[in-house]
Design brief:
Layout lengths: L1 H40 L1 H16 L4 H11 L10 H7 L3 H11 L3 H16 L2 H25 L1 H24 L1 H8 L1 H30 L4 H13 L4 H9 L4 H14 L4 H9 L8 H12 L3 H30 L1 H31 L1
């Protein structure tokens, strides 16, 4: 029994060292590799694709000609924009292709790129919408990378804490006959199943907390990005609101109550003024700016770009603020789920094994 107990203590010590020293470093390297992969394979390439199409359009090339150059420079473009090779080769209608991409895409950057190409095909002014879309995607990438890097250590600790009870239980079952006998009993099996359930619940709870802290629920930047993209392509404010409202996104749901007023002939400023009353008083500055700009006849393209940058800066500050308090809030799933799971999966089988051995000696 003493040999088994010593082996168990050694195993627990190794797990603690693994959790404190090795896992954070491995996780940091893993996240760094994933970030570098995402920064070089997906988001920057889409932004660079739009920049290349815009540059070719300024030099007098058609959209189909620009897409052919994109396919030659980015052979894997179909992985992000399905059907791009076929469109460039067969001369298919770009607006119909972009509509199909929007119908099946869930990634916000793919949707932004497809929307920009759709507007470029319909308005004949590709350099406006494409430049705005590339800027929006790069700002999203910057915020996403900052949030991921800020949570590397915390997510490594989360993974270690949720794996630790299971690792200790496996070690106990391998080295201690008493623990195996205790787990084989109905009460021991029920305790292990309850511990596994609590561990999974705690892991999902903490994962959801991290996801909510990194994203948030403020849709104002998405609304302003969508409106900025539409207005930059030459759409009127009313048409821009209608187009955004017709898209099944959070931005579309946000401005959908304005659509009925605009469709019945109301001015955009009047429709937004009605929507303003249902907003957070601290989030109405952009509505007031759009209302004033339309009343005074100021151009909205530049204003929306500035409002979008300001809203995205506020979102970045909100993410940083939520990440700072996350280390305190995460104690709730730790205390309610992970620690009881550790007791049920590690402490209870160990104590049961010791009691079994003592009974055999007695």
């Amino acid at each position: 029994m003493l040999n088994n107990f010593g082996a168990l203590c050694t195993a627990i010590g190794a797990v603690v060292v693994l959790r404190g020293e090795v896992l954070p470093r491995l996780d940091a390297r893993y996240v760094h590799r994933r970030l570098m992969k995402s920064c070089t394979d997906v988001i920057p390439d889409l932004a660079d694709v739009l920049d290349g199409i815009e540059r070719d359009s300024r030099q007098g090339h058609s959209l189909h000609g620009a897409l052919r150059r994109v396919v030659s420079n980015h052979p894997r473009i179909d992985a992000w924009l399905p059907g791009c090779t076929r469109v460039s080769r067969d001369g298919m209608a770009i607006d119909a292709w972009c509509t199909d991409v929007l119908g099946g895409a869930h990634d916000p950057d793919v949707r932004t790129a497809a929307t920009a190409l759709l507007l470029a095909a319909r308005t004949g002014a590709p350099h406006r919408s494409l430049s705005v879309a590339a800027r929006v995607m790069r700002q999203r990438r910057s915020l996403r990378d900052e949030a991921r890097l800020a949570t590397v250590q915390a997510r490594a600790s989360m993974q270690a804490l949720t794996w630790l009870p299971g690792v200790v239980l496996v070690i106990l079952l391998l080295v201690d006959d008493g623990a195996r006998a205790a787990v084989a009993r109905p009460l021991g099996l029920a305790a292990c199943l309850a511990g596994i359930g609590l561990n999974v619940l705690g892991w999902r709870w903490m994962r959801r907390m991290y996801a909510n802290a990194m994203t948030g629920d403020d849709v104002v930047p998405d609304v302003l990005d969508a409106l900025s993209l539409e207005v930059a392509a030459g759409r009127s404010p009313a048409r821009a609101l209608l187009d955004v409202a017709n898209v099944r996104t959070s931005a579309g749901e946000f401005v959908r109550p304005v659509r009925s007023d605009v469709e019945h002939g109301a001015l955009v400023s009047e429709a937004l003024r009605r929507r303003r009353d249902s907003l957070d008083p601290h989030r109405t500055g952009w509505v007031d700016a759009i209302i004033d700009a339309e009343r005074e006849g100021f151009p909205l393209a530049r204003l929306l770009e500035q409002l979008s940058d300001t809203a995205r800066t506020e979102r970045r500050r909100g993410v940083q603020r939520r990440l700072r308090v996350l280390s305190v809030r995460v104690t709730a799933p730790l205390v309610a789920c992970v620690l009881p799971a550790f007791v049920l999966l590690a402490i209870v089988p160990m104590v049961a094994g010791v009691v079994t051995h003592l009974g055999e000696l007695g």
